[in-house]
Amino acid sequence: MTTVPATTPPETTTPSPADAARPGHAAPSGTVRGATPWTATGVTRPDDQELARLDAWWRAANYLSVGQIYLLGNPLLREPLTRDHVKPRLLGHWGTTPGLTFLYAHLNRAISARRQPTLYLTGPGHGGPGLVASAYLDGTYSETYSDITQDTEGVKRLFRQFSFPGGIPSHVAPETPGSIHEGGELGYALSHAYGAVFDNPDLMVAAVVGDGEAETGPLATSWHSNKFVNPAHDGVVLPILHLNGYKIANPTVLARIGQDELGALLTGYGHKPYFFEVPDDSDEPPLVTHRRFAGLLDEVLDDIAAIKERAAAGDDTRPAWPMIVFRTPKGWTGPAEIDGKKTTGSWRAHQVPLANARDTEEHLRVLERWLRSYRPEELFDDDGAVRSEIADLAPPGELRMSATPYANGGVLLRDLRLPDFRDWAVDVPAPGGSTAEATRVLGQWLTEVIRHNPDNFRIFGPDEVASNRLQAVYDVTDKQWDAELYGPEVDEHLARAGRVMEMLSEHQCQGWLEGYLLTGRHGLLTSYEAFIHIVDSMFNQHAKWLKVTNHIPWRRPIASLNYLLSSHVWRQDHNGFSHQDPGFIDHVVNKKAEIVRVYLPPDANTLLSTYDHCLRGRQYVNVVVAGKQPTPNWLPMDQAIEHCTRGLGIWEWAGTEVPGTKPDVVLAAAGDVPTLEVLAAADILRNELPDLKVRVINVVDLMRLQDSTEHPHGLTHAEFDGLFTDDRPIIFAYHGYPWLIHRLTYRRTGHGNLHVRGYKEEGTTTTPFDMVMLNDLDRYHLVIDVIDRVPSLGSSQAGLRQRMQDARLRARAWTREHGEDLPEVRDWVWPGAGAAAELPATADTGGDNE
């Protein structure tokens, strides 16, 4: 794991309980130079000249968008269009793009007038050409990519790179300046937006929600995020529901219900909807359309400014936050018909309306008329640069949405002030000589992490922070809650501002955390292990984002995405089979080795060391699986740090090998319950077969098992063989599905000697030891595995093998008769540990909420 031993935190002034213990403090303002957020006074309505400039900017953005999809040459139509000017493969999405560029243009005007820091987040991520075009128009794209110059050749390169081999993707991607939301992340626009505004009081996120996206479960749930934003201490999300009527081939639900019904729905979600419509058959002059929307946007922003003013004056009631319902034709400004079939205002405009623009002269002329309808000769000067009076519509400097530092969170990232985790070490007088709930101990340390970082660290979880034993954090913070409050006799630890965010939706917790990280803060997500699968797709997209941004020099590293998975498979015996699934690890390790890390600390001290390491990380996804039930502590803190630094190691005190000779068998474990069973098996072997040379290995960092050529944490073959041998049986007890260990080690010399025990999809509501027996991970079965696989034993130990089988039968019968585990199992301690300092078992009812 390459953990660096902790150092004493730098000298700082500890926040007083009144100031930091109930943190609602926002990050210092002024992160965007020249900002004067939430201005409402002195803003004038645009005159005809400004409206004409706004329309010209919009036409230029649309022209550049269509050009990206279609053109290889003749970028400004300075000569008649020929088929050789058109790309051989036409890729991209047009339908949502003109609406996105229209909104971008109007937000530019508003930002310039109000000096309002704004992040533009587009749920319809396939509007990529529009966002690239907008960043080019305001100059950020050329500043970021110096070869995309502001001239005819630069426009040609801009067009050529789009959806072209060696170029950029067709959707909004990490390569797009100003973006934090990837085009493949359908359903998460609002959760990312709200995550971005937590602790960013000056920031507005204009979050465009596609009407196709609005049909997804995560998006439908995320409307409720407005109950978790504090008007005084957080920023503002302005949702814009973009109703253009169609998905790829079907109409959208919200576009096909009446305005009264839609308004009632959105009002019920807690919003104050403002409606704007451009009918499909509208012949309204463009300046009239622009004037109508500019007036509506100013009204909305004035409403927001008034809410912020009331909140600053002490009004802590939840407002009805404004939002915009923006109804426009699909493919607005495109060809009305192609081949006699309705195009604009239909599903046919969704992707590439002229999919074969090179095939006939008629189609080529349709494309040319479409491009020329934007009047490029009015938009670009003789050198091919956008005319200055148009470009000047964009705000200056960092107020440009494509240049905002909020979209490059590493620029704003501050290191966490981490207390020395060693101060929370549990006493381990001997291996197994004390007992603790590992996550409860972690929660005590996290309490101080929150105290030391009152404005840039939050914990996210779906109603499971206390259930996963992290409730000590409520000593210094509350759960943020801006819906109704019933008073402390009912609502424990609920407040208008807090560092814990709980909503019974893994999607929202993941999305909030991602938005929080992407805009330059730190956090963790805690969840029941079985239910983290709900965010598999979200994890995919975030891991892909990190992988791509690792290779984009201007993207600064952000804090790692940290998972804490507890209530895990082996101690979900009370909730049963539905709550038993360790497969998220398998999903995670599919991603690039440079991104993913998986840790299985076996006790409280190794968990503390592991999580200190994770919170210091950048650009990783860290998955930590740790139990919350009372379990033995194996390592004192100094040894725990060394063990975590190595990532795995031999526990010499547990084995019986003879120095200078090879062991007869290797017992390995990864995970807290597998570690317990391996040590219990080693104890049996020590007593029953004292001459057998047993080596015990514990693995914390799962990726250490992989080949060093495949993962940066991996062992070389020589290192692996030195630990596990190249010719001795290896009995490996693993927390998850057994085949993952085989997958990680298939290149190893001794892989044929490896036998893995783990979860094999057997579970029910039963006792903890019966759970491990159901999956053949128990100590008795591990001893049987040793007998079966060590050649020198074989039939000579048939009697011991039979006694182990009988012990399994006896343990099973005991649970059926008494409803608890056999005393010899339940009360077992490692030899020399003495009477372990046991904590009382804690009843767990958290799973019922799922």
TrEMBL record:
Residues 1-44 are annotated as: Disordered. Residues 1-21 have a biased composition (Low complexity). Its cofactor is thiamine diphosphate. Residues 628-830 form the Xylulose 5-phosphate/Fructose 6-phosphate phosphoketolase C-terminal domain. GO terms for biological process: carbohydrate metabolic process. It is an enzyme of class 4 (lyase). Keywords: Lyase, Thiamine pyrophosphate. Residues 47-411 form the Xylulose 5-phosphate/Fructose 6-phosphate phosphoketolase N-terminal domain. Signal peptide: none annotated. Its EC number is 4.1.2.-. InterPro entries: Phosphoketolase, THDP-binding, Transketo_C/PFOR_II, Xul5P/Fru6P_PKetolase, Xul5P/Fru6P_PKetolase_C, Xul5P/Fru6P_PKetolase_CS, Xul5P/Fru6P_PKetolase_N. The keyword Protein biosynthesis does not apply. One of its GO terms (molecular function) is magnesium ion binding. This is Probable phosphoketolase. It comes from Myceligenerans xiligouense. The lineage of its organism: Bacteria, Bacillati, Actinomycetota, Actinomycetes, Micrococcales.
